[in-house]
Specification:
373 residues, alpha+beta, Jelly Rolls, 3 domains, 6-stranded mixed sheet, 5-stranded antiparallel sheet, 7 helices, flat
Length: 373
């Protein structure tokens, strides 16, 4: 093998380990022993108990585990790590360490790994400024799916610690192998930008890539060597992202495992309304259903999008334009308009809407079907 290639990979390998595993964080000025605070946790007995060699918390929505501050007051600020051993938490729940300074809440999201190691900075030099400190466990049901379903979170012990009691490698791997849960808006799931577990890893690998490019230029090795090194950086991130993607899929499956046909109560309401509209359309003999075009009047909000989804058997679309404008432009009188919510009031007026004459095909308190005549 070419000597320059050997030098390239020797220096590249050394640089990879340095970039990934060398710690750039400020070291703790002194090493202190870990402090098990499991016995200092305070909660209602029916919500927090010990069973089968683990502490267990039954969470309905949110559960607050207060930490007695008095036994920790003399050295609380000396700790820069918070560790949970034997953590068992489902993909749709989150856990965080919180404290108050002058009525302002500070929060550190905790890793959901079985052995969770988390860096902590209390952002104060006076322990007396901390008025309250607690662990917050939350069930995440942002789309309203079974918000009252109890979730069990279990762990063996909880303690404040020093990062010097843990290798920098274990702390970094604990962060990089953590799970980034999906967030939801009305129609999409996405990874939140405030949960960036891979940011430091990507930054470190980027430094290594630039170092390899510099070696490639200086040593003049084959371009294949540079491509292989870039592929290695890509494979490292791919492995971690793939693991996280599998867990996100498990999150969705566990979130909707009971009633996966509907997303939440509003979706159920949209489906029920779609059923009523469908029944009215089907009994309207004058409607040529395969060719007839329908327009739902409304914005692209969650309710109208789900109503559109449940009416997809028809030739249907959503328009956010004013009904008066749509009627004026409907020169061929080819559309049936579906009105919901406050727009139903149009059907309570005279048969003329704007300069257009209309015919009501069907209506009740929640919807109205009309067309231009």
């Amino acid at each position: 093998m070419n000597t320059r290639i050997l030098i390239f990979w020797l220096l590249s390998t050394i640089a990879l380990f340095c970039c990934v595993f060398i710690s750039f964080e400020k070291a703790t000025p002194k090493q202190i022993e870990s402090n098990d605070i499991t016995s200092l946790l305070i909660a209602e007995p029916q919500s927090f108990y010990f069973s089968n060699n683990k502490y267990r918390a039954d969470v309905i929505g949110k559960l607050k585990l207060e930490i007695k501050k008095e036994p920790l007051a003399h050295n609380l600020l000396d700790y820069d790590a918070f560790v949970i051993r034997g953590l068992e938490i489902d993909h749709n729940s989150s856990i965080s360490l919180n404290w108050k300074i002058e009525n302002q809440v500070h929060q550190v999201p905790l890793n959901s790994n079985k052995h969770s190691i988390n860096r902590v900075n209390f952002n104060t030099t006076d322990v007396n400024e901390i008025s309250e400190i607690y662990i917050l466990i939350s069930s995440n049901f942002e789309l309203g799916t079974r918000p009252n379903a109890p979730k069990e979170v279990a762990f063996k012990s909880v303690f404040f610690d020093s990062t010097q009691n843990h290798s920098s490698v274990s702390i970094k791997l604990n962060q990089w192998f953590d799970y980034t849960p999906l967030k939801f808006n009305s129609i999409n799931g996405y990874s939140s930008s405030d949960n960036l577990h891979f940011k430091t890893l990507i930054q470190r690998l980027s430094i290594w890539v630039f170092f390899n490019i510099a070696l490639f230029i200086l040593l003049g090795v084959s371009g294949h060597q540079l491509i292989i090194s870039l592929s290695l950086a890509w494979l490292v991130t791919l492995a971690l992202f793939s693991k996280n993607l599998v867990q996100q899929k498990q999150q969705i499956q566990s979130a909707y495992e009971i009633e996966d046909q509907f997303l939440n109560q509003q979706d159920i309401s949209a489906h029920q309304l779609a059923q009523e509209i469908t029944a009215k359309i089907q009994i309207t003999s004058s409607t040529d259903r395969p060719q007839q075009k329908f327009i739902i009047i409304g914005n692209n909000d969650f309710f109208h999008l789900r109503l559109y989804h449940h009416l997809k058997r028809f030739n249907v679309a959503i328009k956010s334009s004013e009904l008066v404008t749509l009627l004026e432009n409907d020169l061929n009188k080819q559309y049936i308009y579906i009105l919901t919510n406050n727009l139903v009031d149009y059907c309570k007026t005279d048969e003329k809407i704007g300069d257009s004459f209309t015919e009501i095909i069907g209506q009740d308190a929640h919807y109205c079907l009309l067309r231009k005549i």
